TrEMBL record:
InterPro entries hit by this protein: NOSIP, Znf-NOSIP
GO CC, any one term: nucleus
Organism domain of life: Eukaryota
PANTHER family for the chain: ENOS INTERACTING PROTEIN, NITRIC OXIDE SYNTHASE-INTERACTING PROTEIN
Name the UniProt record assigns to this protein: Nitric oxide synthase-interacting protein zinc-finger domain-containing protein
Family: Belongs to the NOSIP family.
Organism, as annotated: Micromonas pusilla (Picoplanktonic green alga)
Sorted UniProt keywords: Nucleus
Amino acid sequence: MGGTGNRHSKNAGTMGSENLTYMEKKALGFGTVKERLGKETVKDFDACALGLTHAIDPLVTPEGVLYDKEHIFSCLLHQKKDIARRTRAYEDQASRDEEKAAEEARKKRIEEVDRFERVNNGGVGKSSAPVSLAGAEADVGDGTGVTGDEGIDEEERERRKKELPAYWLPSKTPTAEVRVGDKPDTETKCPTTMKRLRLKDLLPVKWTRVPTGADVDGERYMCPVTRKTFTNTTKIVVLRPSGVAVSEDAYEQVIKKDGAWDGKKVKGVVKLQRGGCGFAGSGTQVESKKQFSLGAGSGLADSRGQHRGATSKFGLRFN
């Protein structure tokens, strides 16, 4: 028979042989941890996607996301203010860039004129602008036979020495300019789908309330066509432009054929996103995942075969 004959668990305490099985790694918290979510983790069909509570004045987006009027208006207003702030910052940055480019072009032109004056007038420039050290050094070895120090008196030379950049001083070091970035997007977006959303895209939702005293187990609304109460598993559509909420079955079987409801023409529907019911087929996210990468000495779990603790924080016993 191959092997040493010792089981893996017998060799676990030897330094350098802390090889863990898949189940041991899972117990220690390595890898992806999955958790099943329940109904309480997903909002109801009539709850606001921002406030996560019952929407008092419901509005629906073209993608079927339900919001309360107060919450979505506050969100869009905040986005507009943020867009205006970032737009002003971008315009200020563009203005500074233009001024900086114009200043650099002006300095470059002055240096070229001053260099021309020094070469043609024996080093005595007629330009009123001061001669930069970079422009003077550029003349050395350019084939003209005139260096940057020729024709400059002692006073000018001393002044240039004082203007030499001391890069080691904090006051002389260049500063990194904070860049705003690209031009900001000027469109407001839906906080759930991140698609373009404007105030005129929101459609008011008109629910049909359940009659008082009816035994409906606490349900608030019902379909005005079939008179069946709405639950988180019901497929609901909102009629355009009236905003009446009906079940999808009633729309397909009754309203769609006539093209009108309650004397008003139907120009289309918006499929309302369903609430959470805990079933995988509901279309909502019912599972949560998180990646953990725990190493030796992280403090989150004992290392197998080293600390010899009675049990790990994840339930795995070592001895």
